[in-house]
Design goal:
Number of domains: 1
Distance between the termini: 12 Å
Structural class: alpha+beta
Strand content: 15-25%
Oligomer: single chain
Helix content: 25-40%
Strand order of the largest sheet: 1-2-3-4-6-5
Length: 141
């Protein structure tokens, strides 16, 4: 594995890795914040500050939340239950198959971990045909 994959992830990696997945389009419906889609379905988006994601000390809305789709509630819970994890959720996302990550904490992941998260997000939203084709070309190691 190259050292590049072991380095801390950066926000720029989200854009690069999302765009590297097949059949991806980018929508900027929310202003300048990108929404990455496959087959018209969002799998990653950069969220505008909202009242459900706030700093507990100041009450200020987080300006840097990134939303990643996950395959299931089980996958979601696996990511958000560990208090040391940078992933979280809010009441707004109860029952929604996604996790949130503040951009300021993205460096707690390696680039490889981020790539896996993005691939899983894409797979959770891609059509069965597209997902099967991608998995055939990228078998798990």
């Amino acid at each position: 594995m190259s050292r590049d994959h072991d380095r801390p992830a950066r926000v720029e990696d989200v854009h690069e890795l999302a765009l590297a997945m097949p059949h991806v389009t980018v929508d900027h419906a929310a202003g300048d914040k990108p929404v990455y889609q496959v087959g018209g379905k969002s799998f990653i988006f950069f969220r505008n500050p909202r009242p459900d994601a706030v700093d507990p000390a100041t009450g200020e809305r987080y300006p840097d939340v990134i939303v990643f789709w996950v395959e299931s509630e089980t996958d979601k819970q696996a990511l958000v239950q560990d208090e040391a994890s940078p992933f979280f959720t809010t009441w707004h996302f109860d029952g929604h198959p996604s996790v949130l990550l503040r951009a300021c904490r993205i460096g707690e992941l390696t680039r490889t971990e981020l790539a896996e998260l993005i691939q899983d997000a894409w797979l959770s939203r891609a059509s069965a045909r597209r997902a099967s084709a991608w998995l055939s070309a990228h078998p798990p190691q």
